[in-house]
Amino acid sequence: xxxxxxxxxxxxxxxxxxxxxxxxxxxxxxxxxxxxxxxxxxxxxxxxxxxxxxxxxxxxxxxxxxxxxxxxxxxxxxxxxxxxxxxxxxxxxxxxxxxxxxxxxxxxxxxxxxxxxxxxxxxxxxxxxxxxxxxxxxxxxxxxxxxxxxxxxxxxxxxxxxxxxxxxxxxxxxxxxxxxxxxxxxxxxxxxxxxxxxxxxxxxxxxxxxxxxxxxxxxxxxxxxxxxxxxxxxxxxxxxxxxxxxxxxxxxxxxxxxxxxxxxxxxxx
Length: 269
What we know:
Blueprint: E1 27-28, E2 35-36, H1 70-109, E3 130-131, E4 136-137, H2 146-170, H3 172-175, H4 179-205, H5 210-234, H6 244-267
Antiparallel strand pairs: 1-2, 3-4
Helix pairs in contact: 1-4, 1-6, 2-4, 2-6, 4-6, 5-6
């Protein structure tokens, strides 16, 4: 807006010209009474033509809405993509926690949870009886080295699988092409570790006495709690971010992998 006396550019809210002091007569919308620029064709408040106050003039037709700029469209698309990835990450972590809790509850009822850390494994030289599903059978004596041969075979098999899962974990960053891939690969790796842990447990369980097995179950409950606390702590800085699921799953996988190695070292040597 310009001063009608000296031509000085004025602010829209100016009542007087700062150069010559001329009072500025503001243009008023004939429909809503809002203040308008002198050159305004349409009212900024109600959108109606400012020329309708003169009955001899024909109002200007409404101006078509200008299309949004390409830059705004790209930013909107990026925001939508980020929101989708965030929702997927949150849902994945929630499902993972629920599945883990359900699996652990079922394993506890069926005596199939992973082995703990506090009890010393029974060797083939022990004379105590070993627990079975329905009855007790005599322990394998030192004169029958079947258990030791079996330990050696199991140790070799499980050590090979453990080494393979560590290699798989180390290759996740190279194989992932997006954050969604990283989240899924981390989750899959943890599931593989969890499955291996339960297989090792089943083989060890058949050689434990009832008292040793009861102690190991108590220890396992404590280990599970510590595993979850560690995962929550490791992923705390990523809460609400797209990388939370990958960090949380990675922590679970790492703890479970260390547990598998401990079982093999302690019980299959």
